[in-house]
What we know:
Layout: E1 4-10, E2 18-22, E3 33-37, E4 46-52, E5 66-73, E6 79-80, E7 83-86, E8 101-106, E9 117-123, E10 127-133, E11 142-147, E12 159-165, E13 180-188, E14 193-201, E15 204-211, E16 214-221, E17 226-233, E18 249-255, E19 258-267, E20 273-278, E21 294-300, E22 312-318, E23 327-333, E24 343-352, E25 357-364, E26 370-374, E27 383-387, E28 390-391, E29 395-396, E30 402-407, E31 411-415, E32 418-423, E33 433-440, E34 443-450, E35 455-457, E36 463-469, E37 471-474, E38 480-483, E39 492-494, E40 503-505, E41 511-518, E42 536-537, H1 545-548, E43 555-556, E44 572-582, E45 589-598, E46 615-622, E47 629-633, E48 650-654, E49 659-661, E50 686-692, E51 703-710, E52 729-735, E53 742-744, E54 753-757, E55 768-772, E56 779-783, E57 789-792, E58 802-805, E59 817-821, E60 827-831, E61 836-840, E62 847-851, E63 860-864
Parallel strand pairs: 32-44
Antiparallel strand pairs: 1-30, 2-3, 3-4, 4-5, 6-7, 7-8, 8-9, 10-11, 11-12, 12-13, 14-15, 15-16, 16-17, 18-19, 19-20, 20-21, 22-23, 23-24, 24-25, 26-27, 27-30, 28-29, 31-32, 33-34, 33-42, 34-41, 35-40, 36-41, 37-38, 39-49, 43-44, 44-45, 45-51, 46-49, 46-51, 47-48, 47-50, 52-55, 52-63, 53-54, ...
Amino acid sequence: MLSFTKQQVETTRPDGYWIEAFPFCVDGSSGPDLIAYGLGTADSDSKIQLYLNPYNGKQVTDTSYERKQIAKLSFPVACRHVSSHYRYGPSMNDIWPDGGRVSWFENEGDVGKENWTRRYIGQSPGMHRLKTGHFTTRDHIQVIAVPIVIKSGDLTSPAPVIIYTAPDNPKDLPADRGWNSAVAFKTFRLVHEVIVVPGLNNGLDQVLLAGREGVNLIRFDVASATWKSDNIGKGLPQSEGNPYWGSGTVGVAKVHDDSCGYIASGEAFHGNCVSVYVKPKTAPKDRIAGIRWTRYLLDDYGPLNDQHTGSIHHVICADIDGDGIDEFLVAFMGSEPPSWDKTGVWCYKPIDLESGKFAKFKLSDDSAGRIAVADFRQVGRKDFATISYSVPGYFESPDPSVNMYLNTPITAEKLNDEVVFRIPDPSTISIVDEVEFLDVASRKLSLVVLPKYGRFPVKKGDGVKVIAGRLLWEDQDGNIQQRTKATRPQQQVSTLVNSKDGFVSTEFEGAAFMLLKKSSTSGTPPYSDMAQVEAHNIFPAHFPSAVRSMKFPWVKVEDRPWANGGFKGLEFYNLVGFHVRLSSDSDDQVCHIQLWTAGKGVSAGFHNHADKSFAEIHTCIVNGTGKGGMNWATVPDADFDPANPDKTKYKGLVVPDMCEHGPLWRIDSDGLPLIRKNDTVDYPWHVDEAWIAGDGRGEQSFDVWIAFEFPSFVANVDVNPENVSLSPGIYHIIDSATSRPIAVEEGKTADNTPVVLNSPGKFDYATWQVSRIAGTSFYTFRNISSGSSATSSWPPVDKQKVVGSRSPAAMNLTSAWTVRLISTDTFSVGLIATDLGLSVNADQSRAILASIGGNGSRQWRFEAVPEKTY
Length: 870
């Protein structure tokens, strides 16, 4: 699940109840603001406040929310944009008989105005929820308003469902005259949620109600001019002594192109149960009525209190991870005694919708009465905001507050003098994120995560350096350009993008990369003085202040502790540094990034990284003389004297402006790095961090470059076309001899689950995403059902079992496969760096490894699975 960064909107509130995303400008020119308030008390009216969105400015430097008072009301409860009702009363047991007034508030376009003009709509005691829409006509705005009870303490009598219809000129009505009203139903009790289902009733809106009668759909039938209702589910069953049953809150979720894919519910009134209603796979899209919905109880958060209530106050459906399937968020107000489980926001994500299986994640630990979801920053991602539930005399959360939770796939934190970025695995996400962080040497550096099959705009003259996955684009000449972690060994390639359509794109693996955009802030090369190469912190305003206040100075290398007295007098400087790690539980390292400069003729001497293990690639921003670059020994280590290098025994590679070089470490024929006995990557003697910086004569001209230190990875080498003849895609992998497909046993997600052979024609849990490891000829097989990869148990030996695992070994040594074409539609599959192939055991029930060429050798068919059938 993605990361959300908490931003405090308002602290130390007196109370809290309602929050709503409010689009002051409906033309889409700005992100929505917030409306939030509490209920107030008998002695103190509630302030309905508009919180102005700080992200609507072009340059966001201050993320605090300016507040404007819309109105001051007695006991307001629900709000929909600027329709509200008030004078409810202190509680359900103390309803004001003359209360329940419904009004709308007028502002003619001045966002800074306070105390908007209040205009009367209607009144009904116990008014609790309302929404706007078109329920019986499209010619006028309408308000649906529903009391929760009709008099104090009466939990039995039905309350009216009232439809108010706006007149032609609602501003012209006398102050005491309301809108025309009609009662749609008088049969529902304890309605605690009203949700509009837009436009699916011949252009009219339908409504979902959550109350004692469970979840019900109501809609106006134009042909008969009558209201109709459908019970979707009864909700929590009635139990002895408990006055609350049915449903308390409801939301309808979109699943791809089905706007009514499933229904989420919190049960019952202020309850502790989370349920979903799921329709059959064959049910028509965009339909709720006339369908058999199956209820699945997902969670029961424990016993109710003495008043028979719990902690759930609101559910809302939204696609917060961008995969086309709505998750649903549940607002928990808190409990007494305090409970982590029952305070904050839980997110439920469908895993197997038809079977009612959901995963859940905690997104917030702060009391939440309600949740507002929107793209507040207009970046293409859904954020959410909450207000604490704090109602005097009922439940009062400590320190009530309003909080914004920004959808931030890329996060950063300070670690001593460096920054730690955490990013999602690009192959597992569906949304894009970009974070600018440093402006230096005429380039503005940003970190970008791009999901599979994603597109990202890159301007002409900007560059990219891939740190995970693969980027592609069509250049101006119609050639397909590809960039991975590194180009071919001992070669260089440009990082500049000259895309014909102005975009780079990804395939199955997605990509994480550094974007190097042109900038005038940090000067224009050449640089004759280090003062011209000052680095500027440009982290966005929503990042932690500890990160935004960091300085990134250039430090002379001779002053670094690890220099150990060396590098005296050299114009050689270092800027640290940035760790990039995966945000998953594995916390895997992606790379470490640091910057270097060197004056003319500077060389720090040859070294071979015998003390640490990493694979290092450099990107040159500025080549001051045009001659600087990498140099490496061409003879065995024992034949090379690093203190007195013989020019006949080493070779050089100039790395021009905005270019990167390929691997310098020693590799085998498959591109796998050679490893020394001390587990370090086998480098020849070479000069990199202070690469030989060109001629030392004439005016000073600094080189500036970036070092990317990766864990060991497979280099990009020439491969036989037969080894890459299988196109990445979704497949069933079938044993040719038996026609049995391989599958992860029962689709289990646990590591070391057996990879088994199903019966012929049975494809349960047998669908695999086959991907190429970027820049190599190797493949990975990821099971669609379990999310785990086909992996060899350790050590990989003859007859070793193949299992499903989410924890790959370094360089995918136990989960990367060669796939070689045998005939038109059959392939051999082998584990990399071994002579072992994918095979089956004696009773043909399990996948194992077997020696290639022996009796256990098998051939496999890869049958493509049509899109959207898996």
